[in-house]
Known about the structure:
The structure holds 2 protein chains of 2 kinds. Chain A is mostly helical.
Amino acid sequence: MENENPYLEKTLLLCAAVGISICFVSIALFAANPGTYSDITSPVKISSLDSKGANPAVIASVGILAMVASPFIWVVVALTSFIARKNVLYSFLTSLVLLLMIASIILSSA
Amino acid sequence: MLFVIFFVSILVGVITSMLGIGEGVLLVPFLTLAVGIPIQMAIATSLISTIANSSAASMTYVKDRRLNVQLAIWFALTSTLGAIIGATIAAQIDRVVLTEVFAVALFITAIIMLLQSKRQNLTQPAPLRDTREDRFQLDGVYDEFLDKRAIEYRVKNPLLGLISGFVAGNASGLLGIGGGIINVPAMTLGMRVPIKVATATSALIIGLTTAVGAIIYYSHGFVQPLLTAIVVEAVFAGALVGPRLQGRTRNDALTAIFAAVLIILASIMLMRP
Lengths: 110, 273
């Protein structure tokens, strides 16, 4: 059966691969040097961590950020796909979804 | 303890990706009650792992044509709006009463889903009998693994999707619950979307709606990077398996599992002090 959304599938795969790979590297580093950052039951400010050398917590935070940002990329790819297919209704609706996602971040952090 | 967290998260990933619901339902109680992690950190971890679940599950669902992207956009539109309004009015609403009302509504929904499933209404997609134009381009086709054939379905009551998306988003902003438990019943009961398409489409919607909350939690410093990295990896692995299991599960069995999860969740909501 033909996949109607090949670009969305590839984007989902690519975004996940980036986030997951970086997180995996951080876990591997953590396993190799358990003393680097061992307290996993308390929150941590990323900015307060020592970024010199290979701090697994800093690397993990980069992977997590990539993961968190990926839904925004999915929406952009879906939008591009609708525009390419000249689907006016869903190009408009997808743009609105993207705008609302951005607006909600601005409103919540204000 | 890290191994326990890892294996439980794999299991959570399998279940939630099969049902198109967020990780918070199962992961937050586990991390707070069993592991002793602060609630805000547990929520942050579950939000981020929901995105991992959503991306892993959606990859398979898109490939197998079980995910209806237009329908996902349709729900995401009002869901995002609902979440903004829900979060804004959360301070002025009696959340205890609202939680109880919501839990009772979940019980009723679960029972209706079980009854309808026995009457085959949910397992049989709405037939393409009438020639009415698909104005909102929501109708679709999905590949049924069990019968090895493509099944066409027509989406009824499209406006219900907008209302349901809004309610789901609102509940997420007000009560901190994911939209999947509202969106899936609305799609199957109200819009006659086959359960496999409904759960697959919900898997993408929850990724879109939780992204906003995840960014906010991340920027406020509630994320514990290593714990989250471990949970994300485990949930991702589980969510690669869940959609394959979903494809091989009978529609009525999937409906029964979903209804059982609704009943458990409603009971937890009613018992919580």
